[in-house]
Amino acid sequence: MPRSCLAPCEQPPGFATWEYTNLARPVKVEGLCGNAVRWVDALEVQGAEVLARYDHPHLRRWPAVTSHVHGKGRVTYCGSIPDPELGSSLARWIAKTSLPANLWRLAGGTVTSMGARNGQGRRLRFLANWSWEPAEVEVPECVRDVLNGERFEAGATLPLGPWDVRILVVELF
After folding, report:
1. Whose CA is closest to 45, among 4, 15, 67?
2. Positions of the chain with pLDDT under 70
3. Pick from 68, 98, 128: which residue ends a domain?
4. Are 15 and 66 in contact (CB under 8 A)?
5. Is residue 4 domain-resident?
6. What's the sign of the alpha-carbon dihedral 12, 18, 22, 28?
7. Any domain includes 6
8. pLDDT, tens only, 64-84
9. Could you give the number of structural domains in the chain?
10. Residues 31, 91 within the same domain
11. What is the pLDDT of residue 72?
């Protein structure tokens, strides 16, 4: 009888572990990018989706990563220590499938975007250009610059000078 990988709960997490083995060297993982290092859990799927398998003659019989919807969330389990590439690949998958959409997520470039709430509960955005070159950001929702009062409609281009910072409040209408 397999032992559960988590504390007992009303509904299983979609997998169980049978045994584990140590790894002398990294093992490539198929389905996600990267390698398993140090050890491998022998996972038995019990309703979970298999996201990745080990690229190894003996270990390929067990999944490397599983995910199972549970209640309002999901349980995602990596049956090994992931190398940085596998960890990043898994994090991207989790962000894509499990996190709410972030309209302000910026892909690459020199501009970063951070969010907060002020004392009145209003949403704030902090945009910073970490470059000697000017930059532009298309704002996904209506905002007002709290320092100079300038207003930008959703879809408008907001300019940032070199090493510039803009503090924005999201307008409610």
Report:
1. 15
2. 1-12, 173
3. 98
4. yes
5. no
6. negative
7. no
8. 999 998 888 888 999 999 999
9. 2
10. yes
11. 82
Token reading at 152: 């930008």
Domain boundary among 74, 98, 122: 98
Cβ-proximal residues to 44 (8 Å cutoff; 6+ apart), any chain? 2, 15, 16, 17, 18, 62
Domain contains 38:
yes
Would you mind telling me the total number of residues written for the chain in this entry?
173
User: Are residues 122 and 156 located together in one domain of the fold?
Assistant: yes
Q: What is the pTM of this model?
A: 0.59
Q: pLDDT value at position 173?
A: 55
Tokens of 39: 């050890």
What's the first-to-final CA gap in the chain, in angstroms? 59
Q: What are the pLDDT digits (tens) for 12-41?
A: 578 888 789 999 999 999 999 999 999 999
State how far the Cα of 19 lies from the Cα of 106, in Å rounded to an integer: 42
Q: Which domain holds residue 118?
A: 111-170
